[in-house]
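Course assignment 3, question 2. Fill in each field.
Student: A.L.
Task: Predict the tertiary structure for the chain below.
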Amino acid sequence: MTTLTLIGGETMAYSDADRAAGGAALGLLAGAYAGPETRVLLAGPHATELIDALADRCAAVTCLVRTLTDAQALARRHERNPRVRVLCGSLDAFTPGGDQDLVLALGGLGRLHSPDGARLTWQSSLDRLIAATASAGVLLLGVENPLGVHRLTTAGGLPAPDPAEPVGHSALVARLREAGLHVAPSYAAFADPARPTVLARTPELDAASGAVPLLAAEAAAAFSAVTRRRPLLDDPRRLAGAALRAGMGAQLAPLWVVAAGRAPVRPHEPLPSAFVAGGAHAAHWDAAVAYERAEDGRWSRRLLSESGTTLRMVGRVARTPELLTGAVAPDRLLEEQLLAACAAHDLPAVRELLRAYATWLAATPSAFATCDNVLADGDRHELLDPSWHLSAPIGADEALARALRGFAVTLLTSGLPHPWPASLDVESLTVSLAAAAGRPLTREDARAAVALECEIQAARQVLPEQAEQELRCELGTVTARHTALAARDWRSMTGAMDRLAGELAEARDEITWWEERVRTSTREHERHLHRYRSSRSFLVGRAVTAPLRLARQTVRRVAGSSDT
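Answer field:
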């Protein structure tokens, strides 16, 4: 039977479950340090699936939570598992025994304290967890970055600074070493600090590392999933990509996960340089993958679990995770290159990129070869995620229409600068992009791509029929002011407003110029008409035709009187 013990300082009528640390990525990291004989302490709120996995795998699991609601829920969930023990109360009331082989505090130290208990300093909280760790044990600590990309781009305010808390990844590692701990290579996590899906060792985020373009693409996809329809100050996808390319990925990561211990830290299972688990799609499709760098500097990818090798399908949409295994080119996303060329109004570069892409796509048509899923370097193209496919093949024009329409939606909904008029709708912009690619498409082709887009998105999210119909309506009515399909941010909106204001001013100037041209032409016409009527030839002509006009007027009067 699971025991529930109240240790003091319990928080009533409150729950931390909505922001509990967890997810597949953190589960894989924690599982690498857990074994059948491991005794685990989970300090703070952790996701139920993470606790379940450790409870089934480890010798003993102790959960320390501050809220009575969460403690009771855990006790009920594991009431038949005698290896699970639940403690409810504040960290200051917790008495460490120094016998835990693995201590997890993936949600940080801030949610270990209760309003009804004494609040320990950051260092005192760390010392309490270190005291709970066995001499050969491991402390796995998650620390949210107060200056992470997620904080710098959110519409909310920054958290109040804690002078006792280390600021920055280097300061965090230094503080742990000052406490007498050996620190293993830490991981930077993207994008949601509570449930990250991308973890990468901090040395791999150096700008000189060949993995930066790959991890930037994965981080952008992770931010797309967590920021959808959320008000923002700036687009975190672009900021994260810029930070990674500048070698500042570790400094601006939303979360750091550090493994430390009194003895050198060695996981039970080897950990990769980076791994991705979870994503924007439903859990039905999830497959965890690891990125590794060989001695020659080349990067490869492999599945982290055999369970991800089975074929999965929803309708025509299918995924074969085993196709993820293999070498990966360290190239930039085609979408990033196109956006940069559009922002510079470099139409020759846009045409060159699109024509090379369209030529490659015509040879290997795929509905999933969209601009945000293709790594490009000149004429070389490669799918970032090649595991997705349709059970029935499609034509090259249909695949190109979906890809270009998706990119057109990005241009219209993100407020990014581009060389086309703002008055263009998504179909017209798709046709213009196709013309630049040298593969003419019609507006009907662009509209037909909506059905394919809806089919794929509904399958990836496993939507019911009603939600699929709503998605189809949403995808078919995209305008430049449409905010539901992308994470709109104030910076992009302001830039779009400035661009529209500039185009409006240019249109007004053009209207003023044409009005002046019309007035000038009218005055010139009136002057020529006056000169013509004052000319001798006109006066002679009037005199010659005067009898005829008089006769015509007389006939009209006579005809009118006879009718009456």
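Instructor remarks: Confidence is low (pLDDT under 50) at residues 480-487. The domain at 3-194+253-273 is CATH 3.40.50.150 (Rossmann fold).
Grade: pending
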